[in-house]
Every structure is written in structure tokens, then in C-alpha cells.
Amino acid sequence: MEYYLGLLGMAAFSITGVIAAGKKDMDIFSIVLLGVVTAIGGGTLRDIILDTTPIFWIADLSYLWISLIASIATFFCVGIINKIYKLLLYLDGFGLALFTIVATENTLNLGFDNTIAVFMGLMTGITGGMIRDVLTGRMPLLLQKEFYATPALIGAICFVALHQ
Prior knowledge:
Blueprint: H1 2-22, H2 28-49, H3 56-59, H4 62-76, H5 78-83, H6 85-109, H7 114-135, H8 149-163
Helix pairs in contact: 1-2, 1-4, 1-6, 1-7, 2-4, 2-7, 6-7, 6-8, 7-8
């Protein structure tokens, strides 16, 4: 079940990347690339830092395919997607929470200490969105007044505390 929820979170991250790119009048290749980078960016950076091989989306191409398909579909159906944008924000928040906790747990299972696990969990959840915002010339959501990274950080800390 966690696997399919992860794929749903990937799709949501891809869609937010495409929506952000669409507002910048990019071509389809650039838009789809931004959607994919938004979805897989955080986990890719995590796997590189932790020297986890192969990188998660190389080990299971479903993550890459879901990101590509969601990005392409959003490009062609952006009008429909904009109508359900509020639902998409909930899915994005769900993806952030899920990826933060799963990455925190996986980092602990690899034998890293609690501090590294919390940092990797947080980084996994927020990096794709930060890349999206930087590439589209927006102020990263992380640096705005909205609560985005703080709940993820608290969630990772609580997970580590309860895991002990």
C-alpha cells in the first residue's frame, strides 16, 4: 500500500512542477522535465548523499514512468488540473509527509544516526519543490511564511523519537 501511495505522491509532485512551469511559458520538453525533476529530485539527492545504489528511480522505473506520465498528462489537461488545484495541494502535502517519514525510516535502517535520519527525511521531502521553485524563478516555498518544511521536520523528529 505504501508503494502505491508513494506513486500517488510522485504524481502530485510532478503535477505541481508542471503547473509552476506552465506559468513561465516553457515548451513541453522543459515543462515535463521540470515535472519529473520536482518528483524525483529529493530522493535522488538523498540516494547520492547516502551512496545508495542504485538510485531509487533507477531501481524501480515505475517512479520515473509515473512522473513522466503525470507531467505529460498535466501539460495537456492543465485546465482540468487547475479546477482541482486545492485537492492537489492536499496530495502534495501528503506526499511531503510520506516521503519525509519513509526517507527517515530508510536512513535509520541503513544504520545512520537520528540526526542524519531527520535531515535526510526533511531533505527528501522538500528538495524537489525547491528545485522547481529555483528553476521557475520563484521564491522557494521553504523560505516563505507558509508552514511547509516545519511540519515535515516535526514529523521526522517525532518519528525518530517514537522509533526509539
